[in-house]
Amino acid sequence: MKVLILETAAEAAARTAGIISDCLAALDRPVLGLATGGTMEPVYTALVELHRNGKADFSNATTFNLDEYVGLSPNQRGSYSRFMQDALFSRVNLDPARCHLPRGNAEDPIAEAKRYEDAIAAAGGIDLQLLGIGRNGHIGFNEPISSLSGRTRVKTLTESTRRANARYFPSANAIPRYAITMGIGTILDARHCLLLATGGGKSAAVARMIEGPVAAYCPASALQMHPQATVVLDRDAAADLRLIHYYQEIHPGGREPKIP
Ligand code: GLP
């Protein structure tokens, strides 16, 4: 696992956007896995800026989002589809036909999850999977004790996750109880996993993910099993790491090391 620690949340988001634009530039037909949540908003803002400056070309890219709420239609307030439209899809040169999210309003959500998993495989798998982390260590909507080899499926959200996402909904009753999410096995199949966490509220989950045991109780800890996982943090999210000085020595300021 590569741990890059930046001073501020803005710098961490910019570093993350830079890694994504490098991937866009390096591959002929990049397949990006995308994430939602407040942490990702400055990343998408930075990507839009890079695009406007001619430094991020999405024309050949395909995207698959991690998850979507069950029961919400694509344009509905609170849906991840709408989040992505507003934050990125409508602001860069992505082909709408190649931007994928699970269909939250599918008649049969279980079948929809299977279809989504198959669509990722048919696209050749994911080159770079962007991830955030929940305070309880979830990735996508894989809540604690999710199978570490699970595939895309319907999951029941915890009360704490529903509360954390309440700000996107008009009332408490409107917050969905279920979501379709890529499984941890699906996520680990991506060729590169890139997780961004910012703010002190995430520091305990970050420490468990990086330095705790690999355990379904902290789903993000499964990234320890991935051969190419990069974690980008700001100083506050990194505050509980025991080996913080070691990570900073290897990647000063979150940069790549200069090996003599
Ligand atoms: C949701 C999403 C996750 C995201 C998490 C953290 O639960 N499904 O993918 O990582 O929220 O969101 P935030 O960045 O708002 O803290």
Radius of gyration: 17 Å
List low-confidence stretches: none
DSSP helix fraction: 25-40%
Whole-number total of structural domains: 1
Which labels suit this protein?
binds 2-amino-2-deoxy-6-O-phosphono-alpha-D-glucopyranose; seven-stranded parallel beta sheet; Rossmann fold; 10 strands; 260 residues; alpha/beta; three-stranded antiparallel beta sheet
Q: How is this fold's topology laid out?
A:
Layout: E1 2-6, H1 9-26, E2 31-34, H2 41-52, E3 62-65, E4 67-69, H3 80-87, E5 99-100, H4 109-122, E6 128-131, E7 153-156, H5 159-164, E8 178-181, H6 184-188, E9 192-197, H7 203-211, E10 229-234, H8 244-250
Parallel strand pairs: 1-10, 2-3, 2-6, 3-5, 6-9, 9-10
Antiparallel strand pairs: 4-8, 7-8
Helix pairs in contact: 1-2
The structure holds 2-amino-2-deoxy-6-O-phosphono-alpha-D-glucopyranose (GLP).
Structure summarized in a few sentences:
By secondary structure, this protein is of the alpha/beta class. It has 8 helices and 10 strands.
Structure report:
The chain is globular and about 55 Å long. The chain has a single domain, classed as Rossmann fold. Strands 1-10-9-6-2-3-5 form a seven-stranded parallel beta sheet, with helices on one face. A three-stranded antiparallel beta sheet has the order 4-8-7, with helices on one face. The protein has helices at 9-26, 41-52, 80-87, 109-122, 159-164, 184-188, 203-211, 244-250, and strands at 2-6, 31-34, 62-65, 67-69, 99-100, 128-131, 153-156, 178-181, 192-197, 229-234. It has 260 residues and is an alpha/beta fold. The structure holds 2-amino-2-deoxy-6-O-phosphono-alpha-D-glucopyranose.
